[in-house]
């Protein structure tokens, strides 16, 4: 058992923890990063399956994600545009299939008008909300006591419009049924991306990918940190007080002046705290939970949908696989599709054996793109819900009333212990961009504390706290 003395111990080697470690190093602080897994990257993860490179975890970048872009610049990592050319496909709840172009789903004119009106309503609210402080909105209490499902239906009697709009937040982002989270939580999701309009625009929110994959960002940071990163070291016991901490990993113990918990809130309870955390923290963490989604990858000899003039982008609010996208890897001549099965549909699918699950998923994708989709060379299901150190996807969100009740204190330090993850972000919430912002903010706050200087509460983490140092500098 090695025992280390450091300024800061960081628990979790995902994008948040590694970003915080890099920033603290720039500030002249010594760090140790303890990671439970045998890899870095957290919820970003690349796998080689059947000779195909698959991004098992998070992967896309949108134009508003300036924090992530600044980190990529610092690391010397490039991006490439996702394939978008061609018509999209919409499958209605009655099974009718339509190819379409443009922003509007091919539904009746009245439903299109209602979807536009609901989008405008959400855009207005998103523009009024500070994503770092959604609980300060004048209507926060009202919005946090009603589910997103019921809030939409209070605005519109068009069930199809409500279902279509709800799909982008419930299935596409929070991966929970829309009746289980509040309208305020949905507005936060929209505000975190700059507008609800951005969430419904796949060409914006899924704009680009990373050359070398998103996990490659964490790998590049870990390379710079070298032996400061300790894998296979789950922290199950943390002693703390106002002056410092002792974090006990599997074979490494770290004594430090400060700690950052850079893991999702649903994992905070895996740690035994000595003394235990204050009651408010313990209760708050029980109101934050993961959603559930199956990310399905299917690799074909060629991107056959492109020959049909299709982009590979597909939507089906009533389908088993509600969203499908062209996910062909950079430089690969083969074609890859990625599809998503969320919340209760994922529950139903996991009740089946692997063979039946595959058959049903591929049949759903074939309903969009044709029978060629039934026989991929490679098929893989990303299942973070069964992973010990994640336990769901994509990130945690609060139950009804939880955001207003517990949100204001969610990043308040407890003694020497600080909390940071994409789950706690405002801008970039649930995304790697939010992880980067939270890592930078935690590092800046701790550096200020250790130096006895003032921390700038307005710092949003969009740019590095301690200067941009490009690759090779």
Automatic annotation (TrEMBL):
At the top level, the lineage of the source is Bacteria
This protein's cofactor list reads: FAD
The Amine oxidase domain extends over 16-446
**Which Pfam families does this entry report, sorted A to Z?**
Amino_oxidase
InterPro entries per UniProt: Amino_oxidase (IPR002937), FAD/NAD-bd_sf (IPR036188), Flavin_amine_oxidase (IPR001613), Flavin_MAO (IPR050703)
Keyword field:
Oxidoreductase
Q: Record's Gene3D superfamilies?
A: FAD/NAD(P)-binding domain (3.50.50.60)
Q: Which family does it belong to?
A: Belongs to the flavin monoamine oxidase family.
Protein's name according to its UniProt entry? Flavin monoamine oxidase family protein
């Amino acid at each position: 058992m090695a025992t280390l003395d450091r300024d800061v111990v960081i628990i979790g080697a995902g994008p948040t923890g590694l970003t915080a470690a890099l920033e603290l190093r720039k500030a002249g602080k010594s760090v140790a990063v303890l990671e439970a897994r045998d890899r870095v990257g957290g919820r970003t993860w690349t796998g080689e399956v059947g000779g195909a490179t698959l991004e098992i975890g998070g992967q896309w970048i949108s134009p508003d994600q300036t924090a992530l872009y600044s980190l990529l610049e610092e690391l010397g990592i490039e991006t490439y545009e996702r394939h978008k050319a061609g018509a999209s496909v919409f499958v209605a709840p009655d099974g009718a299939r339509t190819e379409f172009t443009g922003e509007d789903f091919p539904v009746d004119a009245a439903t299109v008008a209602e979807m536009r009106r609901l989008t405008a309503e959400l855009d207005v609210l998103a523009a009024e909300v500070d994503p770092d402080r959604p609980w300060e909105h004048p209507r926060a209490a009202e919005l946090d006591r009603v589910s997103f499902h019921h809030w939409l239906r209070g605005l519109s009697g068009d069930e199809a419009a409500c279902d279509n709009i709800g799909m982008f937040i419930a299935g596409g982002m929070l991966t929970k049924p829309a009746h289980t989270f509040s309208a305020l939580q949905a507005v936060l999701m929209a505000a975190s991306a700059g507008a609800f309009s951005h969430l419904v625009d796949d060409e914006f929110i899924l704009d680009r990918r990373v050359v070398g994959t998103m996990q490659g960002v964490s790998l590049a940071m870990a390379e710079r940190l070298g032996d400061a990163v300790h894998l296979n070291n789950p922290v199950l016991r943390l002693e703390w007080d106002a002056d410092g901490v002792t974090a006990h990993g599997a074979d490494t113990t770290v004594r430090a002046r400060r700690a950052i918990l850079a893991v999702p809130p649903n994992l905070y309870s895996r740690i035994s705290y000595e003394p235990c955390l204050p009651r408010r923290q313990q209760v708050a963490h029980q109101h934050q939970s993961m959603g559930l989604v199956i990310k399905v990858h299917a690799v074909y000899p060629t991107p056959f949908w492109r020959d049909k003039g299709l982009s590979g982008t597909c939507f089906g609010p009533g389908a088993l696989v509600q969203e499908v996208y062209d996910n062909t890897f950079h430089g690969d001549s083969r074609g890859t599709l990625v599809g998503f099965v969320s919340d209760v549909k994922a529950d139903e699918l996991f009740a089946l054996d692997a063979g039946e699950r595959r058959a049903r998923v591929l049949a759903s994708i074939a309903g969009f793109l044709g029978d060629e989709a039934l026989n991929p060379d490679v098929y893989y299901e990303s299942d973070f819900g069964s992973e010990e150190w994640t336990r769901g996807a994509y990130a945690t969100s609060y139950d009804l009333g939880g955001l207003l009740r517990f949100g204001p204190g969610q990043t308040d330090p407890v003694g020497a212990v600080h909390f940071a993850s994409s789950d706690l972000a405002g801008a970039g919430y649930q995304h790697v961009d939010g992880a980067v912002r939270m890592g930078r903010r935690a590092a800046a706050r701790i550096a200020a504390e250790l130096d006895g200087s003032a921390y700038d509460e307005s710092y949003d983490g969009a740019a590095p706290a301690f200067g941009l140092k490009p690759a090779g500098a």
